[in-house]
């Protein structure tokens, strides 16, 4: 029942992630221009939509953010708006506004991850890895990110089992280096097949995204070696769930605008909520569901 609940939750969050992901929008078709000439006209082609990527310094990303900053009136410098002035000073000398937004969103992402673990009861590989994984989903999309992760895990697991089958004994670090070599070959194979697959998402894959996915695969292998395959699959699945939840928050446009225009409120509120959450010592929601019969009988 517990595993069925987790799988159902993953499917639901994947659906939500695709809905909230702007990359899933359909391209808008252009309408043909009316003409009175009897000559045959060229059929209108669909115009691809350029999806703003918050992790990239592009005009589509920076334009709306810088416009928001230029439209906001600050007034005199006070302790309640000094970060706003600092943001404008940094942007004026070339610091990307999208980087500032991502930095302001990361504490919110960490708080969301802490809530999912301490209140809901979803486990995972720490707090920094799911947060970084959610940024990877922002950069390349949740579907491509999960598919790449499954590829990396499959390759690393195959190499590990092959070494065991062949009875090749290697130290931990050389073995992980060999697994990394195999993973790089596999990822390069996928990237080289991009012209055949004609997937625009594959062209946006960066080394940063691959490194984060490899870190997650390394934790999967470490838990698999130290505990069991079942535990590794459970922790990895729950890490993906946490990252997808955080991804949804990172891609909310109103939240992005709010943290940029009101950074003081964002940082102060997030810090206070972290302290309040640290005081929570009650049962997690998944524990209540698991022991619901015992709780009802008491």
Report a brief summary of the structure.
This protein has 298 residues and is mainly α. It has 14 helices and two strands; from the N terminus they run αββααααααααααααα.
What do you see in this structure?
- Helices cover 70% and strands 1% of the residues.
- It is mainly alpha-helical and 298 residues long.
- The chain has one domain (2-17, 77-297).
- Strands 1-2 form a two-stranded antiparallel ribbon.
- α6 (142-165) packs across α9.
- 24% of the residues are buried.
Summary tags:
single chain; 298 residues; mainly alpha; 14 helices; flat; disordered N terminus
For the record, the count of structural domains works out to: 1
* Distance between the amino and carboxyl termini: 23 Å
The geometry reads as flat
Strand order of the largest sheet: 1-2
Order of helices and strands: HEEHHHHHHHHHHHHH
What is the radius of gyration computed over CA atoms, rounded to a whole number of angstroms?
23 Å
Question: Can you tell me the residue ranges where pLDDT is under 50 for at least 5 consecutive residues?
Answer: 1-9, 15-50
Instruction: State the total count of DSSP E strands.
Output: 2
- Would you tell me the overall average pLDDT? 76
């Amino acid at each position: 029942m517990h595993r069925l609940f987790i799988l159902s939750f993953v499917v639901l969050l994947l659906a939500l992630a695709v809905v909230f992901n702007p990359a899933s929008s359909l391209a808008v078709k252009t309408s043909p221009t009316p003409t009175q000439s009897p000559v045959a006209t060229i059929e209108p082609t669909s115009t691809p939509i350029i999806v703003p990527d918050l992790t990239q310094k592009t005009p589509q990303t920076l334009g709306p953010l810088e416009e928001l900053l230029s439209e906001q009136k600050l007034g005199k410098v006070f302790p309640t708006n000094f970060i706003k002035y600092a943001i404008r000073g940094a942007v004026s000398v070339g610091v990307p506004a999208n980087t500032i937004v991502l930095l302001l969103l990361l504490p919110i992402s960490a708080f969301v991850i802490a809530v999912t673990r301490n209140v809901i009861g979803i486990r995972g590989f720490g707090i920094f890895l799911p947060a970084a994984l959610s940024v990877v989903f922002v950069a390349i999309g949740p579907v491509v990110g999960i598919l790449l992760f499954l590829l990396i895990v499959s390759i690393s697991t195959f190499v590990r089992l092959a070494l065991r089958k062949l009875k090749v004994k290697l130290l931990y670090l050389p073995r992980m280096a060999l697994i990394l070599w195999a993973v790089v070959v596999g990822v390069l194979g996928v990237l080289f097949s991009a012209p055949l697959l004609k997937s625009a998402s594959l062209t946006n894959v960066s080394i940063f995204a691959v490194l984060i996915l490899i870190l997650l695969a390394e934790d999967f292998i470490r838990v698999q070696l130290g505990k069991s395959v079942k535990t590794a699959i459970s922790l990895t699945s729950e890490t993906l769930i946490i990252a997808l939840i955080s991804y949804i928050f990172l891609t909310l446009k109103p939240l992005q605008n709010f943290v940029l225009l009101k950074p003081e409120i964002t940082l102060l509120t997030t810090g206070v909520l972290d302290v309040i959450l640290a005081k929570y010592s009650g049962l997690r929601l998944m524990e209540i569901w698991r022991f619901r019969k015992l709780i009802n009988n008491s």
